[in-house]
Batch of 2 targets.
Target 1
Amino acid sequence: MLNNISLQGKRERRVIFCFLFFPVVLLCLFGIWPIVNLIYLSFTSWNGISESKEWVGFANYFKILQDPTYLTIFKTNLYYLVSGLLQMVVAMYFAIILSFKTWGQSFFRASFILPLLISGVAISMMFRLFFTGEGAFDQLLTFLGLEKFIGMWLGDPERVNYTLAGISLWRNIGRSFLLYLGAIQSIDPAYYKVAEMEGATFWHKVRYIILPNITTVLTLDFILLTIGVVSVFEMPFILMNGSNGTATVLVKTMKLAFDNKKFGMAASLSVLLTLVIALLTIIQRYVVIKRERRQL
Amino acid sequence: MKQLVFKSLKYISLLTWLCIICLPIVTLFLGSFMTHEEFSKASSLTFPTSFFYLENYRIAWQEGQMLRGFLLTFVLLICGVFGSVLVGSMVAYILARFNFKFKKVLVLLYFIVSMVPMTVSQVSTFKIVSNLGLYNTIWAPILLYVGADVMMIYIYLQGLEKIPTELDKVAILEGASYFQVYRQIILPLLRPATGTVIMLKVISIYNDFYLPYLYMPSQNLNTIATTLYRFVGPNQTRWEVICACIIISMVPMILLYLVLQKKIYEGLMSGSVKG
């Protein structure tokens, strides 16, 4: 019997080793080590090439936190927060509509998900064409009698961030839509039946059945959204190369590192970015746990 | 009467959003069938003279070397997805079913990595990848897709919660090895989770621009995303060809979606994310 148990233990250790060895190597090499290294680099003035890395303490951090140009970069990300919140509202509206009987239901659903399937490069190039002078968008405005709004959608620094945030909304709405639709579909139809017998209106159903049932997904989507907002990168990078005041924090980080060879500064900026994300995640977890406790 | 107003509002809003989604794509589609002169003269939203003018598609396909891009993307997809499924299910199986010395540490490490978005840490990953001699090889993005993105482990852990432990205990008593339990009981029962992982991975790898851009600058190692990006540079003046190029790059994912539409919704509705 004793022999049996030790044999069991041996087999257990063997399977644990076999299953974890390769994944843990990958995790350390490409997950943990870069993060540790990032923190180390953030305290140096490394240029990405030289062998020696000069230790500068918190100098990079002070520079970033004191220089107003860096703070304005953080503001650029706020455009995407606003468009993200708008995205949640619009997605919710359409998810509710399309979970009830509608003519052309699956066609509309598919078309709302469509942008999610197109790559960032394709979307960027597409909108570069769409927003050119006298391009399709300006034509549309003329058609709608809104000529006075025509302008340089991508060339005007006052306007370009709104344009980019709009493109981000266009692209990401599918994700929110899909999440909400899934949650609404998993609500037991019996609830609606009972509610109908009680004479509930459409609004009552939304307010008392749908909304309480999708709060978890809403929170999840909000977490994804905030992380997405902090790490906006592709659109401003591909479309504008970060020029014209469109550089988000991550675009700036990449420019610092790979164009200006200031790896130390870039690393500090990355660490700050990560801290923001970690803080947001922790706050949100705290809120979710608190609410779940209250529900119990 | 009120019903009618509501109904028309509903359809008007749906159609409006449909237009917003489709208009940019339609512009592209129309432009891709125009000759160069037509395109420069035409104000965007006009029909081309003929939808059988396929010259742009030929140029895009040949000069852009899109076939090569598709093949490389396909290789990355297969390796990335297969690796993620394997690593995710194995790690989740061990974490959910066994107790061992460093388990808490490992869970913490995975949590930390999941907090830092992959793009953010590239500043320091870059040096590690090039020190390993992986720069300008397809292994750089593949290993990063599998090793640095850990979301699949959480999806599998969620799936494992639903599989009763009694099932594997009985199998062990019957004389099965742990490998057999994993292979013959756990993996088949995790199929819904695998579906979710595959779907998310395919979308993210196919559309990924940044890792191939950063790690595979070689002309021979263009994925479909970087093919497009690099094709646009020297061809700025030939927008009609670029249009065709973009349209071609969209086709595989849209076809895949249409084929798998039913399955995707079933997976979604079966409550992978319950409200």
Target 2
Amino acid sequence: MDAHTKRIIKVNTEKFIFHAVVILLGFIMLYPILWMISNSFKTSAEIFGNSSLIPQSLRWDNYVRGWKFNNAITFGTFFKNSLFYTVVATFGAVMSSAIVAYGFARIPFKGRSFWYACMFVTLMLPYQVVMVPQFIIFHRIGWVNTFLPLIVPHFGGVGFFIFLMVQFIRQIPMELDNAAKIDGCNRPMIFSYVVFPLIKPSLITAVIFSFYWRWDDFLGPLLYLNRPRQFTVSLALRMFSDPQSSTDWPAIFSMGTLSLIPVVLVFIIFQKYIVEGMVTTGIKG
Amino acid sequence: MGKKQSGALSNASLPLTRGARRARLMTSVSGYAFISPWLIGFLAFSVIPILFSLYYSFTQYDILASPVFNGLANFKRMSSDTLFWQSLKVTFFYAFVSVPLRLVFAFFVAMLFNRGTRAIRFYQMIYYLPSIVGGSIAIAVMWRRLFMADGAINAFLNAIGIPASTSWIGNPDTAIWTLIILAVWQFGSSMLIFLAGLRQVPKDYYEAAEIDGAGRVKRFVHITLPQMTPVIFFNLIMQLINGFTVFTQAFVVSGGMGDPLNSTLVYALYLYQRAFKYYEMGYSSAMAWILVLIIGVMTAIIFKTSDNWVFYETKEGK
């Protein structure tokens, strides 16, 4: 065997080990999710003490039972609530973050660095500090049991997204802005026609994060929504699986599986932008 | 006042013409117009609540009656509140175990994926998926089921010949570990940030090192690691803050009470209970400020030591 063949074999063995390790680890990573999906098709008895991923037969009636929830309200209502809250809050968060980010990145106004520093501090502030007084304020103005406390704050922009977009805008050459200015554009026009279309990767990154943070949000709905008719999917799932009552596990897993679909869809459609969005933020100093 | 303002600006020595002053004013007006959504939100949803929270922390307040000022009573009460100390203990343990584990995994997998194989994008997606769905209630509920006495973990252990029948979530010694594993399992977003960092390490550094005969380990220790320290620094601070404020997973996995025997009573969960189960708004506000203090001190320590271990390249021009 000559040296060349030896090297090819070595490279190929390395490759094989790499793929084998990655796939094995990946399977372990995915196992809990696959197990939940598989459980959504099993009978109650089949779930107990069984780690197999293949159900004996596909029990679609779990989905029918799960969807019906308590007969008065179905999961259709919860999905509608979650979708409404998630989409409106995400729209507000992303649009206003972009506008604010443009202000911070491109306009040298007085006090800019002070306010930018304030924004950074709020990034580090635990939500627990504002949780109680926010609740009391929203309680006073009669916003409890409405979606307003969950939606309105997002229209002020989200610190993390603003930071992401400021970093992104700073990498767009200033010459583009200046050229637009010479062509007679004012700042709102430069923002809408020049900068906004160019920061697409960071917008999409923000959309993905916002969508899945809002969709999964539990604490917010737990604090502000008390009427079952207003429940989001996460709140309903939690009530569904109350440890105090006897639990219909296959039905819960069926609705749990459905609850993952919107997030996974958004992720699959946009995932190629995530790494791009992060690479270009230049988090690395 | 106009003169005072211009003192900080670059062409301060020149007296401003009327036009220039007007232009500067217009710049400020449009700047504030653009950041106004954030500014209004910041005042309404951060500054005002923070001031209220500070005030409440020195009061006894149950929402129904007006707050009653009681000085440092809330903070004194903490010192003898065994559940408060328990929640601190649980949270420190959770954060100090799960964050390093998570970062090591994230870094390891990012290193693994930092090569040009066609399948990488697919692998990346699989490894990131648990983080995408991991924050959801569905996963938390499933996790609880997974670690029950008759759950899949025991079934799997039995299948490979390790007899196991304990309820991992029902045992005070192991319950917190189910939360730690859940946190480590979701290393995806740290991994992506590491990956983004790894791709920015200049290729010629490695080429130069290879010519000098540096092996894999040497290249890792002398190039990759120092180049990645700013990213490690960023991830460490973000993840620690996340770790200290964990709530949802603990709430669901522990049945909302920090069961069993308060072994999963994380700080945010106890704070929530005080506020919204017992309506002790003053006490929970005081607890929130202790949390700020803890996070502040930790961040300060990391920042202080960062001069010694975080490596920044001097950037020219930019």
